[in-house]
Amino acid sequence: MEVSTSSDVDVEQPETAGAAVDGAAWAAMVGPKRGRFSGPYAITLMRIATVLVILVFWQLASGPILPAYAVSNPVSVAEAAKNLLTSSAGWSDIQTTGIELVVGFALGVLIGTVLALVLGAVPVAGRVLEPLIAAVNGIPKIALAPLFLLFFGIGTESKIAIAVFSASFIMFYNLYLGLRLVDGELVEIVRVMGGRWQDVLRYVTLPSLAPPFFAGLKASAPLAMLGVIAGEFIASFNGLGHLLYIDSQQLDAAGTFGALVVLVIMSLIINSILTWLDNLVLRLLGLGDRGRAAAAKSR
Amino acid sequence: MQWRRPESVGAPASASRDARPAVEDEALRFEDVTFGFAGSARPAIRDVSFRVARRKFVAVIGPSGCGKSTILNLSAGLLSPVRGEVYFGGRKVEKINAEAAYVTQSANLLPWLTVERNIGLALKFRDVGESERRERVARWISLVGLEGFEHHYPRELSGGMQKRASIARALVYDPSIVLMDEPFGPLDAITRLNLQQELLDIWQQQSGTVVFVTHDLSEAICLADEVIVMSHGPATVRKVLPVPIERPRDIGAILESPEYASIYRELWELFHAELDTSRKVAA
């Protein structure tokens, strides 16, 4: 399968496009792919500038335009966040919320995954339980928080339970639907090639489930966090949600914003870990972008 | 409507059936096989009987939706007949036929494995040792002209290259029979011709048994030793037509030969009659 290059075709061309338009010569002719403001640094700089403009406006408007008791100002918020991050009381709150979140999220993922795999593997169980699961999923998870407080008390256990509940449904649905999308022809091909059931699992089912699994992780992590914080709002004696609530009750806007800043940092950390994991696994499975597609198409 | 009566040309095929050649020469045999999916209104194939001799290339043609793929699935052991029996090498096919290889319409390579690992997978399932596996995979990669693409993933290849990889994957474990379900259907005309010629060349070296489902009359004549013409569904065997074109074959030369033209006319008339009846059934 030879590909004819432009030099085979006898048409009038400008001098520069002469015999061999390839590699460096071509790159020089068309220039790098870039818009006027779209270089890698320009975008980052513009992002930072946007944040700075907002912060400056906030600082200047707090008082003259906006009520300072409600919006505080960036300098005070930074101080409050720093206090939170440097005091032992602050760390104890961060630690409580962190443990609730990580344990609740991990258990939720585990339970949702196992449930999906079991229901997928036993079709009868799937048909019996699926409507029930849908009914329970219809309840807003926060509405169950008072019940969990009754069951597990106002300590960390009740928050973990809410997080488990919030995360597991997303994981269940993502994987359960993912299982249905496993390509039946691939399964048949592997079986005709002599694959046993464990080969089908390893070479077809599990790799097919990787994308919905990671999509599920990214979708359920914020819900687990929502569950933990909401649980702490309702009844708790420590944690970032507790702190947020108490600070706002005491009209401490700076403290409230400071706790929010820490929450944002936590969720960014979790999200970047999940993104990293996602990319790693997809790359190992050859599903990630390796930029080879263009090279292969030329043949 | 003028077309020759099937009986006048069908002599060789039916004679060979009556003669009942030794089982050793037989790869695949269908005996009055009827199959339909549970809950369907009518069977997909009805009372299908035919016999494929070893080392023969047999094409199965028929109107679309006439159950051609069902015949392959029954041969592979992916489906079991509702009535009748399928024999492979003299033994009844009851579970997945481990001596068969399947090449489907879409390449169906595993997207998460490189070309090399896709091709080597069946050898791995058969516990072929690492060094032998490498050797056989490398040989097939070069036979289908994919050198340099060993470490590419399927989505990085063109449709034709994916098809080459899937053919190599099917042939690498020396299956006794290769089942091909319109393998070149989705390809463009040029790639198709190229791959047909390559398949001819490869098959002439390997010459295992091939059952090749297609709805392309020309493809059937160019590739096969025998063409099984199916009737409109529920499909039965309408006629088995020998293709007396000698090997090695060259598709360019075949297309210009007088034998090709006469076989094509014969097939076309058979096919046309089938389409006519199917239209009447539909109306």
TrEMBL record, chain A:
Q: Which residues form the ABC transmembrane type-1 domain?
A: 94-274
Q: Identify its membrane topology class.
A: Multi-pass membrane protein
What GO cellular-component annotations does this UniProt entry give?
plasma membrane
Q: Which UniProt keywords apply?
A: Cell membrane, Membrane, Transmembrane, Transmembrane helix, Transport
Question: Where does this protein reside within or beyond the cell?
Answer: Cell membrane
Q: Does the keyword Transmembrane helix apply?
A: yes
- One biological process term in Gene Ontology: transmembrane transport
User: What residue range is the signal peptide?
Assistant: none
Q: Which domain of life is it from?
A: Bacteria
Q: Where are the transmembrane segments?
A: 41-61, 101-125, 132-154, 160-179, 223-245, 257-277
What family is reported? Belongs to the binding-protein-dependent transport system permease family.
Q: What is this protein called?
A: ABC transporter permease
UniProtKB/TrEMBL annotation, chain B:
GO molecular function terms listed in the Swiss-Prot or TrEMBL record: ATP binding; ATP hydrolysis activity
Keyword annotations: ATP-binding, Nucleotide-binding, Transport
Q: What SUPFAM superfamilies does the entry give?
A: P-loop containing nucleoside triphosphate hydrolases
Q: What InterPro entries does this protein's entry cite?
A: AAA+_ATPase, ABC_transporter-like_ATP-bd, ABC_transporter-like_CS, ABC_transporter_ATP-bind, P-loop_NTPase
Gene3D superfamilies, alphabetized: P-loop containing nucleotide triphosphate hydrolases
Record SMART domains: AAA
Q: Where is this region: Disordered?
A: 1-20
Positions the record marks as coiled coil are none
Q: Where is the ABC transporter domain?
A: 28-257
- What PANTHER family is this protein classified in? ALIPHATIC SULFONATES IMPORT ATP-BINDING PROTEIN SSUB (PTHR42788:SF13), TAURINE IMPORT ATP-BINDING PROTEIN-RELATED (PTHR42788)
* Annotated protein name in UniProt: ABC transporter ATP-binding protein
Q: Which organism is it from?
A: Actinospica acidithermotolerans
